[in-house]
Design brief:
The complex is a heterodimer.
Chain A lengths: L9 H14 L5 H11 L5 H13 L4 H44 L3 H25 L10 H17 L4 H19 L3
Chain B lengths: L10 H17 L8 H11 L5 H13 L7 H12 L3 H32 L4 H26 L5 H20 L4 H13 L4
Helix pairs in contact in B: 1-5, 3-4, 4-5
The chains are: A mainly alpha, B mainly alpha.
Chain lengths: 186, 194
């Protein structure tokens, strides 16, 4: 713990989260772990995993939640806002410039073709991320067979039947949480 | 790509957009991307504020840019505004979708993170985490599936599906940087291979 460091100021928080965000193409999780834990030593691995687990179960983008909680823990609400601003503002400007440029050039078949290709890649990245994360299901008290049943039911109702997410989260979600509760010891 | 709708949006429409994003925010367990199917239902199927092509290219642009994936929401808002008349409306669209999506979840997360931290041994907290795991993971896969299915003519679109399947396998099995895969997709599309 003695080797742990801390952000020096609000500016330090803002700049650090901006640099972190600007390295993250198609997802920031890996970069965030590398920067916050290994380079800056602002968190231990254990703290990072713990915070990420909470960010994961709360609504909202995980990395946004993580930056809020981390900034808040060091400098209160101004810290939370600095980290969040660093994470979002510069990438936001870049993505809007890209969107505007795209609208200008989309009549070129090559440009819309390139975007179509990238869209298909993005779909594959998401599916692969889901597959990779499914390894973590081993730690769920639901057990693998029930996890598969719940996962398949969720996939079919959202991707095939196109049911509203709210029904699925409330219905299937509370069902899964109750099962998990019953399976937990003590 | 020429099928972008021309819109006249009234104050009530912007307000409705904001309310829907407040709701999406509360539903976005596991990240904003898990509510993408719901945004698609609302923006494309129901309101016709965005074309199919605009919706999927918004997500692709956000994936191509650095930063959190949540910025696809800003691009959706931007494109709604562009369809409704131009850059000022587009900036309003960004403001409304981003504020709507972030406000409830950030307040809730900020408060809940402290509570969960203090109560992480509670059985109910652990049950919630573990029960939601398969659902969160399944939602990520479903979003990818819906993106891939935006192209739905097998005879014409099979190369796109093959690309999605190939990327899924490569990204699952290797540690390749996403940038290489996105660049490969862009090159294949640029030269009309997919």
């Amino acid at each position: 713990m003695s080797t742990l460091s801390a952000p020096k100021s609000l500016t330090d928080l803002f700049v650090s989260f901006a640099i972190l965000a600007l390295q993250g193409f198609g997802g920031v999780l890996a970069v965030a772990q590398n920067e916050l834990v290994e380079k800056k030593r602002w968190m231990t691995k254990e703290e990072f995993v713990e915070e990420w687990a909470v960010a994961q179960i709360m609504p909202g983008p995980n990395i946004v939640n993580l930056s809020l909680v981390f900034g808040g823990r060091h400098f209160g609400l101004p810290g939370a806002m600095s980290a969040l601003g660093g994470l979002l503002l510069i990438p936001l400007a870049i993505v809007l410039l890209l969107a505007a440029a795209y609208a200008h050039y989309k009549s070129y078949p090559a440009v819309s073709g390139a975007l179509r290709g990238m869209g298909s890649v993005a779909a594959g990245l998401l599916i692969a991320t889901g597959i990779k994360l499914s390894r973590s299901l081993k730690s769920s008290s639901l057990g693998i067979p029930l996890c598969i049943v719940v996962g398949v039911l969720c996939f079919v109702s959202i991707a095939v039947l196109r049911w509203p997410l709210s029904f699925v989260l409330l219905g299937l979600g509370s069902f899964a949480c109750i099962l998990a509760y019953r399976n937990l010891k003590s | 790509m020429s099928d972008a709708p021309l819109l006249v949006l009234h104050l009530a429409d912007w307000f409705s957009l904001f309310l829907h994003y407040l709701l999406f925010s509360l539903l976005s367990v596991g990240g904003a991307i898990t509510t993408a199917p719901e945004m698609h239902r609302y923006l494309v199927d129901q309101q016709h504020w965005l074309s199919e092509a605009q919706f999927s290219s918004s997500i692709a642009i956000a994936q191509a840019a650095p930063g959190p994936n949540i910025l696809f929401v800003a691009v959706l808002g931007w494109n709604i505004g562009i369809n409704a008349g131009g850059v000022p409306a587009a900036l309003l669209g960004v403001l409304i979708t981003m504020t709507g999506l972030l406000l409830p979840s950030t307040i809730l997360s900020y408060l809940a993170a402290r509570w969960v931290h203090d109560n992480r041994e509670l059985k109910s907290v652990r049950a919630f985490k573990q029960g939601m795991m398969p659902i969160v993971i399944s939602l990520i896969c479903a979003t990818g599936w819906i993106l891939a299915c935006a192209h739905n003519e097998p005879a014409r679109d099979w190369p796109l599906w093959l690309l999605t399947a190939t990327v899924t396998f490569i990204f699952w099995q290797t540690r390749i940087h996403v940038l290489w895969l996105l660049a490969a997709g862009a090159v294949l599309g640029w030269f009309s291979f997919v």
